[in-house]
Amino acid sequence: MDATYISPVKINLTLRVLSRRPDGYHEIISLFWKKKGIEGLTIQPHDNENIGDVLDVSGMKVNGENILFKALRWARDRSLIPPLRMCLTKEFLAGSGIGAGSGNAAALMMYLKAHCGLEIENDSLSSVGADVPFLAGDADLALVEGLGEKIRPQVPLKGLRWVIGFPYWRSDTSAAYRGIDDLREAGKLPLLPEDQCRTEATGILRRLRNGETAGLMPNDFLEVVSKGRPEYFRAFEAAERSGALAWGLSGSGSAFFMVFNDAEMSRRTVSLLEREDWVIKTTELE
User: Fold this and answer.
1) The domain 3-153: what is its CATH number?
2) Among this protein's residues, is 131 annotated catalytic?
3) Which of 7, 62, 183, 201 could form a disulfide with 31 if both were Cys (CB 3.0 to 4.6 A apart)?
């Protein structure tokens, strides 16, 4: 019997990048917010081990190895899992910063947990993708630290909706991290104390819960990703004029988001963005 899961996606309301570790990775302190996306993953076990796992993808093209195969290798080290036939409907562009691929992996984890008895271990699951532990977990809103494995659930934000805009360009996460390192070596991007990063996130949550405008969300990648891309700031100005409570870059980009507490305002903003020739897709999520 097959089962269909809707892949979740996330935005980063705040995203602070800490110093580079000796192994080359960077830890983060980030306020992750999850909503149900629009990509579907249908999974059915089959008994032909000669064929192995089968993945059919429709919609957006996925270059290179799909993260689902990486997730399956991780899961098979921990549980007995039969060969799977998977059908994935891709609606979101790769390199957008909303965790779409990680959301597909999270949907697979949900299936394996329900049907194969897989136990989720955040510490090692982050090796599949930094966003996967949060997206595969139960929290809709959390302060996420480390490499994505340290998750502190927060009380959900109610009654707010997202508008996500996707520009025609993509972001390279590795290059964006290198850009942060370069800016810090040049003394152009401060490294904030960890307690200040947490206090910042808490304050933003308080304002949004009170229905107050929080403005441009702090994201250390913005200075790197927005270089030569003034379109971002035109979008942010439009968000402010349209009555958004918050706006910013999600992850390392390239997608940007706006948060509204009024459905009509968000719909009008979607109409405005669809007239921009540099925005190739918009999505509104409740």
Assistant:
1) 3.30.230.10
2) yes
3) 201
Note the pLDDT tens digit of each residue in 175-230: 999 999 999 999 999 999 999 999 999 999 999 999 999 999 999 999 999 999 99
Domain 161-285 grouped into CATH 1.10.530.10: no
- Summarised one tens digit per residue, pLDDT across range 16-60 is 999 999 999 999 999 999 999 999 999 999 877 778 999 999 998
Q: Catalytic pick from 34, 131, 140, 220?
A: 131
pLDDT at 278 over 90: yes
Q: Are 96 and 127 in contact (CB under 8 A)?
A: no
Residues of the chain with CATH 3.30.230.10: 3-153
**Given the residues 10, 34, 90, 150, the one annotated as active site:** 10
